[in-house]
Amino acid sequence: MITNGWRAGLILAAALMLPACAAVETATTVATTVSEQAGVISPGQGKAIRTGTAAVSRSLEDFTPEQEYYIGRAVAAAVLSKYPAYANTAVNQYVNTLGQTLAAASDKPEIFAGYHFLVLDSDDINAFATPGGHIFVTRGLIRCCRTEDALAAILAHEIGHVQLRHGMQSIEKARITEALTVLAREGATTLGSREVAQLTQTFSGAISDIARTLIERGYSRAFEYQADEAAAALARQVGYNPGGLIDMLTVMDGKLRPGGLDFAKTHPAPRDRIDEVRGRGGDFPPAATPKERQDRFLKAVGRI
């Protein structure tokens, strides 16, 4: 038997499935008014539901660039709690120069506080991009690069995650899920200040969720393929051989350990990514890297 309280919860949950924040509030206002008139819910419950829905609607609004940056900083802190920074100024300056050059030519060249690139002191083969432009690459992954073109492909891939807002998409989904969970649990009662506070802070726990996604689970295959496609386009635009991505993935394929906790766990298999890149953008014939560029690359990271 469905009680009046549960009817109220179901009405609200259905309204929250609508995509736009304004539509959510409008639909909820209509639904609660009709329910009050029909005696399904009391005026007090209707008011509480409308208040809670307004709080959720505000929490579902697009983040500002400044908010993305500070969320990214929190995620970056989680990454650095697992991987120490590589204490080599020359290497980090080189990676930053390369990364900033690529970022300036990307589809999202200007972000709050700019892009930040850092090498991590780890033999794991991995890289991370947080919302707000904090990009990390491990020494282990740099060792998979035989040319600057390959390293540029790695950084361009991570920039692709930022410009496509893959991290923020993960956070937003988590917030919606948490909001619906709170509402389903409290739908049979009048929402109080504690529940409203939960609704207005639905995304706070998602910061740790996205950190776990980056470090332990990885993005979806679709997101990784999108970032690879963006990397190939960005590398070509800046003047790098997009085949550097395929070269890096080929080297990585021979280095990854089955069942490992790095790229082997969080990314599609390198061979699958190679097939996908070629399928989307055609084959990339090998091209000779200019000697000056290769000398610069080997001088900077040849002994990393």
Q: Radius of gyration, rounded?
A: 24 Å
What's the order of the H and E elements? HHHHHEEEHHHHHHHHHH
- Distance from first to last alpha carbon: 67 Å
**Low-confidence region ranges:** 1-24
Helix amount, in percent? 55-70%
How many β-strand stretches?
Answer: 3
**Strand composition percent:** under 5%
Kindly report the spatial arrangement of strands forming the biggest sheet: 1-3-2
Number of helices: 15
Instruction: Let me know the average pLDDT.
Output: 78
Global geometry: elongated
Task: Describe what this molecule looks like in 3D.
This protein is mostly helical. It has 15 helices and 3 strands. It has helices spanning 4-16, 21-37, 43-59, 65-82, 89-104, 139-142, 148-163, 166-186, 193-200, 206-217, 221-238, 243-255, 263-266, 270-281, 291-301; strands at residues 116-120, 127-129, 134-138. It has a 3-stranded mixed beta sheet with strand order 1-3-2, sandwiched between helices. A hairpin with a 4-residue loop joins strand 2 and strand 3. Helix 8 crosses helix 10. Residues 1-24 have low confidence and may be disordered.
Topology record:
Elements: H1 4-16, H2 21-37, H3 43-59, H4 65-82, H5 89-104, E1 116-120, E2 127-129, E3 134-138, H6 139-142, H7 148-163, H8 166-186, H9 193-200, H10 206-217, H11 221-238, H12 243-255, H13 263-266, H14 270-281, H15 291-301
Parallel strand pairs: 1-3
Antiparallel strand pairs: 2-3
